[in-house]
Design goal:
Elements (H helix, E strand, L loop, with lengths): L2 H14 L3 H8 L3 H8 L7 H10 L6 H6 L5 H10 L1
Helix pairs in contact: 2-3, 2-4
């Protein structure tokens, strides 16, 4: 599905020294769901992406949306206004 997103999450999680269980708890998801995201088997909702970005201390969470192949919410709102 989306390996780029999973790679980004794993790299940042390991950079911070976080175990899957810890990040999953911070994001309010199960470790199994996080594992599926990291291996590209599941694509999380925007809400979960935002919580993962917070848990990974990403100051510019837009990158996580782009890695998931989506526009960040505020960009989507701009596009909607242009239509």
């Amino acid at each position: 599905m989306n390996e780029k997103l999973g790679q980004l999450i794993v790299a940042r999680r390991e950079e911070l020294g976080l175990q899957q269980q810890v990040l999953a708890n911070k994001a309010g998801i199960t470790p199994g769901y996080l594992c599926d995201i990291e291996h590209g088997r599941r694509i999380p909702s925007d809400d979960v992406l935002g919580r993962l970005a917070d848990g990974l201390w990403l100051t510019l969470p837009d990158g996580i949306y782009y890695a998931a192949g989506r526009l960040p919410p505020r960009q989507r709102n701009k596009v909607r206004r242009l239509r």
